Amino acid sequence: MTFATLEVSFPLRIPHWLYPALVLGFAYLIVPIIGTNYLFEAILLPFLALSLAGVGLNILTGYAGQVSLGSAAFLAVGAFAAYNFNLRVEGLPLIGSILLSGFVAAGIGIVFGLPSLRLKGFYLAVSTLAAQFFVQWTLTKFGWFSNDSASGVIDAPQLSVAGVAFTGAVGRYLFSLTVVTLLTFFAYRLVSSQTGRNFIAVRDNETAARIIGVPVLKTKLVAFAISSFIIGIAGVLWAFTYLRTVEPAGFNLDRSFQILFIIIIGGLASIRGAFFGAALLVVSPLILSRLGSFLFGDLFNSGVLEMSQRIVLGVLIILFLILEPDGLVALWDRIRKRTIARLNKR
Length: 346
Prior knowledge:
Largest sheet: 2 strands, antiparallel
Shape: globular
Helix content: over 70%
Number of strands: 4
Number of helices: 13
Oligomer: single chain
Order of helices and strands: HHHHHEEEHHHHEHHHH
Strand content: under 5%
C-alpha cells in the first residue's frame, strides 16, 4: 500500500492589529537607539506634528465632508493657548495646558464651523479662510498672546510630565510619539463608532442622512470641534517639540494648504492616509534638495529649491487626483494584498 503525501496549505492571514503594533514597537524601542539628531529634528518631529494635523483635518474633510482651508489657524490657537496656560496658570501641569489648548481650539472651531450649517463645498472652504486671517491678525495685533514680546515670538516651555523631563531630541520625539499615538487611537475609535458613521452619512448625502435620523447640524459642529481639538494639539507639538519657538507668521495660508495636501495625497477618509501623506511631504523636500545639489551644484539654491518643491507637489497632487484619488494608502493596500496573495500561492 502506498500513501500519498497530503499537503494542506492555509491562507496567510495577518491580524489587523499586527501592523500598528510592529510600527509602534519599532518607533519606541529601535528608533531612539539608532536615530540621529538630524533624523529626529528634520524628519520625525515635523512628521509627527503634521501627521496629527492631517488626522484632524481628515476627520472633518475626509469623513464628514466639510472642506476647510483654515487648519493653520487652529494650529496657532493650540500653540499660543498652551503657551499662555502654561505661563499664566500657576501649578497647571503641562498635560493640562495641552488639553485646555485643545478645548480652546475646539471652541474656535465650532464658531467658525457655524457657516457649515448653511454653506457647502467651495463656499464653505472660502468661509473657513476667515479663521485663517482672523486668528493670525489677532495674534499679531495683541501682544498679550505672546507675553508682549516685541517680535511676537514665543519660546516653548520645558517638557515635563509627572516629574519626568523630556529633554533633547529623543525626549521630545518620545513625547510627540506618545501624544500622536493616543490621539490617533482616539480618532480611529471615533470614526469606527456611530459618530463616525454619522460623519460619513452627512458627507455622502445630507438629505438622506436627515431622513434616517442623523442630526446633521449637530454632526457638522461635532466634526469641526473634534477636528479643531486634534489640530490644536498638533499645533502644540509643532511649537513645543519641533520648532521650540514660533511666531504667528509661521501659521500662514501655506501651512493650511500643506495639511490639505497631506490628506489628498495620503488618502481621504483614512487615518493611515494622514501618515502616508505627511511622510511624503516631509521627506520629498530633503530628497529633492540632495538630488538638485548633486545634479546642479550651487545653481540649485534655496530659491530654486522652494520653487521646485511647489512644482513637484503640484504635479503629485494632479497625478493622484487623476490616477489614484484614494491616495497613497490605496496603493499600499493594493501592494500588500498582492504580496499576501503571492505568498498564499506558494
